[in-house]
Amino acid sequence: MHLSEGVLSGPVLVAGAALAAAGTAVGLKRLDPDRIARTAMLAGAFFVASLVHVPLGPASVHLVLNGLVGLLLGWPAFPAIVVGLVLQAVFFQFGGLTTLGVNTLIMALPAVIGYGLFSRFLQAGRAAALAAAFACGFLAVLLGGVLVGLALTFTEEHFFNVAVAVILAHLPVAVVEGVVTALCVGFLRRVQPGLLPGRPPAEVP
Amino acid sequence: MIPAPPVEGGDAPGGIDPRVRLAAAIGFSAATAAWQRPAGILAALGFALGLAAFFRLSPRPLLRRLLAANGFVLLLWAIVPFSLPGEALVRLGPLAASREGLALALAITLKSNALVLALLALVAPLPFPAAGHALHRLGVPGKLVQLLLLTWRYLALLEQEFHRLRRAAALRGFRPRTDLHTYRTFAWLLGMLLVRSVDRAERVRRAMLCRGFRGVFLSLHEFRLTRRSLAFAAAAAAAVVASAWLELAG
């Protein structure tokens, strides 16, 4: 779900960085200082969970979880994802400094779009909430794949085949992602509904 | 396994001010990402190798980490040479790898490794707190630095928590397969991790309030721009200018 260093052209990198910076600025502006600890902790939790390999047929995929990040955080998903990507670059060399902007956009823009489209349904009836959560998880990964494809195609039109391969590879992941997002939202609705948008947070003793 | 945060590690490994390291990494990366010609890319790779030698990175872990970063590049090698039109160099059945495609794949590989190498030499060895404060001095918003430092602080702990949940599931006989039961188990483990994270975050928030947190990132960190740091900054700037000259002239 992220592009490596050295692949994309200068203009694509600059455009990605500018859009990601704008999104991060909005996200930081909307981030209440009272929620910094919560956002940081959730960013860490998602980072840890995305390292897990989930079996899928003979292979395994690792979860991206950007749809769920969007649902729980809204616009602050941008800074949370920047932080996750910085940690990933430093610890595992997935992505790096030049691709930080593009990779942030690839994950965070679908997250925020998913939040805008689907967060209002999470407190509705169970079926509607789970369907919305599935759609959000599914679309967030698929949109991310499309953005990867666009970044590749804008770099070099002959990367089109690579772009198609990348988007196709995202399809099964998107289905798994939708299922896990829906099941996780179902869990949170029962265990801690205050975590989901549209409800006052639960009191911690 | 995510390394737990070290309690101490010095503020300036290699005797170079963290601000200089970060600025050099950003400047080098921004320039190198734009290079397209062999001369510019090779100069950048040479400089990155020089950095690795200067900071005495041990070769074996370095090689392992470089390999990990080359997965996507491998995918490009499988596709790009065969999809770029041009003079056919190698034929594999109906497929022909063009000279242009192979050259592009090679250029991307070298550039990618130069960038990752510079990141490993300049940024990865920095103690996180020092790096956070240095980023703040370089103009990164305080809220973002705070998020970065808090996430880093709790990352190893959250990972342990998640492993504990997974171990408990394994002891109850959970074996991951491709079925709904597996996905439900993972989703619930994740949900439980999120619930615990938010509870912990609330305790952390209260502890921060007790220590006088007012929503602003205050940095008491003192950086000293030593002569060694200045010399390093000058050398890095000269190397970037030299690679720019090679790129434009070559």
Question: Mind explaining what this structure looks like?
Answer:
The complex is a heterodimer of chains A (205) and B (250). With 205 residues, chain A is mainly alpha-helical. Helix content of chain A is 68%, strand content 4%. Chain A has one domain: Arp2/3 complex 21 kDa subunit ARPC3 (Orthogonal Bundle). Chain A contains seven helices and two strands; from the N terminus they run ααββααααα. Chain A starts with 9 loop residues before the first helix and ends in a 14-residue tail after the last helix. The mean pLDDT of chain A is 92. Chain B has one domain. Chain B has a two-stranded antiparallel sheet with strand order 1-2. The longest helix of chain B has 31 residues. Chains A and B meet through helix 1, helix 2, strand 1, helix 4 and helix 7 of A and helix 1, helix 3, helix 4, helix 5 and helix 7 of B.
Query: How many independent structural domains of chain B?
Result: 1
Strand order of the largest sheet of chain A: 1-2
Structural class of chain A: mainly alpha
Helical content of chain A, roughly? 55-70%
SSE run of chain B: HHHHEEHHHHH
Biggest interface reads: A-B, 74 and 84 residues
Beta content of chain B comes to: under 5%
Question: How is the largest sheet of chain B built, in terms of strand order?
Answer: 1-2
Mean pLDDT of chain B: 89
The helix/strand class of chain B is: mainly alpha
Shape of chain B: flat
Number of helix segments of chain B? 9
CATH architecture verdict of chain A: Orthogonal Bundle
> Secondary-structure element order of chain A, as H and E?
HHEEHHHHH
Please compute the radius of gyration of chain B using only Cα atoms: 23 Å
Point out poorly predicted stretches of chain B. none
Helix content of chain B: over 70%
